[in-house]
Amino acid sequence: MLTSLLFIGGLGGWEIMVILLVVLVFFGANKIPEIARGMGKGIREFKDATKEIKSEVEKGVSLDDKN
Asked: Which has more pLDDT, 39 or 66?
């Protein structure tokens, strides 16, 4: 279930290796760490925004419960 949510449910080992090889050839070995750092920053910002929204919703719910 989790793998199908990550859109890699039907991919086997060989398919993933071919994709990684294409990425390596297309971007080059020097660019891949840069891309990974950028993706990491994006994921971190997304998680922070999600936590902020969740805390705002919980704060709003707790204020409604008090009234």
From this structure: 39
